[in-house]
Amino acid sequence: MVVNSNDVTVKKTLENELKKIFPSLANPSLKNGFYFVHRLDFPTSGVICIALNKNAARAASTAFEKRQVKKYYLALVHGHIDESHLIINRPIGQDTREIFGNKKMCTSDDDHCIKPRDSSTLLLVLEKGFCDGKPATKILLRPNTGRRHQLRVHCCYIGHTIIGDYTYSDRKDLKPYRTFLHSFRLALDSELEKFDVQTSDPFNSNYYFNKWVPINFIYTLDSNTFDTIDKLL
């Protein structure tokens, strides 16, 4: 779902769902009801930071600006990645082609790219196997910058599009029940508060609808793995 929307016909938003679950926390003086410190793409699940008051929102936003926030994502991508890890440094800008409604992003080497900005993503291979019978790789991603669609664009750039990503598969990846991108862990160090939140792994092989069968295990999701990807910075 989208985080929020000015279109009153869009009912299924994170803002509206939060108002149902935590009505006492909604702030009527705010246009969107809550202090959304950052956002997740529409097809991305997982951890998102929402501040309870203005001071907390300012402190959290400052932490994001100063890169005092560590974000880790899980993804299943098409194909087998040969390397154990990759550091993807490729500027990202807007795609000018009208067929994408100016909502698609692209890397700076694309002829249709405008206003590219430096972008950096660290990628660590966790498992290799098959998703719905086709070669796939499970990866841990840590963005070092916060560009729009960054992880999706960078995965597409290296030739391993995220499974279920309708936009960056050129609208061909229709079969999966979801886009396999998940905000797995968020660690924030602000002047007001420190926290480190981690979810369960939604892309495990036990969940039938994932159709994920790992064959080769390279890294497990433990503290050593997070230390490994952090040291790549």
UniProtKB/TrEMBL annotation:
Residues 25-155 form the Pseudouridine synthase RsuA/RluA-like domain. GO terms for biological process: enzyme-directed rRNA pseudouridine synthesis. GO terms for molecular function: pseudouridine synthase activity; RNA binding. Belongs to the pseudouridine synthase RluA family. PANTHER family: MITOCHONDRIAL RNA PSEUDOURIDINE SYNTHASE, RNA PSEUDOURIDYLATE SYNTHASE DOMAIN-CONTAINING PROTEIN 1. This is Pseudouridine synthase RsuA/RluA-like domain-containing protein. It comes from Cotesia glomerata.
